[in-house]
Amino acid sequence: xxxxxxxxxxxxxxALIADERRSLRELMALCGVSSTSVVVYNLVRLEALGYLExxxxxxxxxxxxxxxxxxxxxxxxxxxxxxxxxxxxAAVIREWE
Length: 97
Fold this sequence. Notes:
Layout: H1 7-18, H2 24-31, H3 36-49, E1 52-54, E2 63-65, H4 71-96
Helix pairs in contact: 1-3, 2-3
């Protein structure tokens, strides 16, 4: 059973959903934490909770989001897909005006 995740873990997960190839220092800056060890600790916790999986040993930036267990993540992902449609639709509407 998955437990609730912390706000820092949520920010990490959101950052990895946007781009799974981020470095530890990029994740540290995006999440506003004090060190890369805090990032690693939270990545390992997310892995244990089933939100992430690690790539091959020794491979840099090898975290992958798996199962997208939180329904809010599915909403965010769907919204990102529709944003591109909305941008194209807005461009077509501007042409017709």
